[in-house]
Amino acid sequence: MHTMNRLAAAIVLAFSSIAVPALAFDAAPVVAAAPVPAPAFDLERDVATALKVFDVPGMAIAIVKDGKVVTARGFGVRKLGEPAAVDAQTVFEVASNSKGFTAAALAMLVDEGKLAWDDPVTKHLPGFQMHDSYVTGAMTIRDLLTHRSGLGLGAGDLLWWPTTTFSTDEIIEKLRYIRPATSFRNSYAYDNLLYIVAGKIIADKAGKSWGEAMHERILAPLGMTGTTTSLAENAGNPDVASAHSKIDGKIAAVKSMPVPNAVGAVGINTNAEDIAKWMMVLLDGGKIAGVQGKDGKEARLFSEKQGREMWTAQTPIKIPEPKPALAATKPNFSAYGLGFQLRDYKGMKVAMHGGALQGFYSRVVMVPEAKLGVAILTNAENGGSMTALQWRILDHYLQAVPSDWLALVAKVEQDQHAEEVKKQGKASSARAAKSQPSLPLAAYDGEYEDAWYGKVVIKPEGKKHILSFTRTPDLTGELEHWQHDTFIVRWKERNFNADAYVTFSLNPDGSIDRVKMAPVSAETDFSYDFQDLSLVPVKPKEAKK
């Protein structure tokens, strides 16, 4: 989920040209550029180029075609500065690519008659409550998976990202305090919290944890023996990729961030060999190749009917104009199904998803008509490498005229980053650098509380003033005066790339009314949803007389 667009890429707004934040696309009509000639397809050379150009230490790729594994292998290294190579068994975090597993588990429950897609959520989770009482009663199991709840993009993600101390049940309980951004079922806005709710329902039906249910219901039947459902399960396995982020523009190994409270939305860790098995089942409508059920018939994970349902458009997605160089990638339709993003390419339907967590990006792309599946797993936070290889591989197997996607995507990514740097420069030069805070710095210290997140604390440390999120140990940083009553918090974890403005609003008497936050950079991942917080000072309790 993070750097240029971490979680955003995680989710991968793969419908846009590349997995970076939507930085301002030109409003003028786009004239499609002629395809840039490209050399003949060579996976080895193309991946080596991508690793170098996009600064990615390691990558695993799986390609399946016509029911067979064409490629399942690794490239580069597991950890920068160490010789151990990525191989077909190297485990990567795949983040939001876990959503397809959650959708499949629910589909299996539908097949078994244990729930229906259009059952009210409250039928299976009586304590479930949204901010609006009508939405609480009307929301269905289907709504949990289709990003049309009315919640804003990434709403409430600070409850689980970066690693928090909230339990899954606490996160679900706090949904009632998160105000909607739009009306119910009005439009698409990607969220994670409702997939956490879906994961809770799966766990309740199974009578065990979401992870245990995944192992029992999906991973074991498919022979995905190298796949895990938590970082804790990876302990003791030497063949695990390390997370990498950019710090001050330089790639570096960083710690992984466990998020056990967000299973359902994230949680799956897998490798090239295993994800190939997953794609083949999806492409074959739920059939498990070469396996017979107890009745002697072919074994299935889920019915053909439910396979179609997962890949049927549920929520339309607006299609942004790509940069001219990437005009050929613009889809004619874009929608979200159940656990999968849907679009078209070269006249064919594509089911896909992306994933992003600290130090990891992934993408799974399937073309049912061509019986083609491509999975790209990386140990870096760069969507461009995956996007370029995605189009390169698809063009080859769909027998399309090849374009030099590696060069085209790299140029667009560079230009967009330069645009953001320029924007930041303008903001810096326009600020009132000589302005002073309205109050003594000590007056800004204290506890502040948001209705859904809870408490944020500002306290002195020597001459510094430190802001900390009380339930998020890694979200702590120094306040730096920007202008007037606005500060910037510089997080100690510099790889977050998520520094935020902190603006204090004052009452007429000079006391602090509330505090608003907002990311400094458009490249900050949307799961850092600081802008949704409305922090008010916590008034000291009066002593009992």
The separation of the N and C termini measures 51 Å
Largest sheet features: 8 strands, antiparallel
The gyration radius over C-alpha positions equals 23 Å
> How many beta strands in the DSSP annotation?
22
Instruction: Please state how the strands of the largest beta sheet are arranged side by side.
Output: 2-1-14-13-12-11-10-9
* Count of DSSP-assigned helices: 13
In the CATH hierarchy, the architecture of the largest domain is 3-Layer(aba) Sandwich
CATH topology of the largest domain: Beta-lactamase
Q: What is the helix fraction of residues, given as a range?
A: 25-40%
Structural class: alpha+beta
Mean pLDDT: 92
Tell me the overall shape: globular
Q: List low-confidence stretches.
A: 1-33
Strand-residue fraction?
A: 15-25%
User: What is the CATH level 1 assignment of the largest domain?
Assistant: Alpha Beta
Query: Can you say what the CATH homologous superfamily of the largest domain is?
Result: DD-peptidase/beta-lactamase superfamily
When the domains are counted, the total is 2
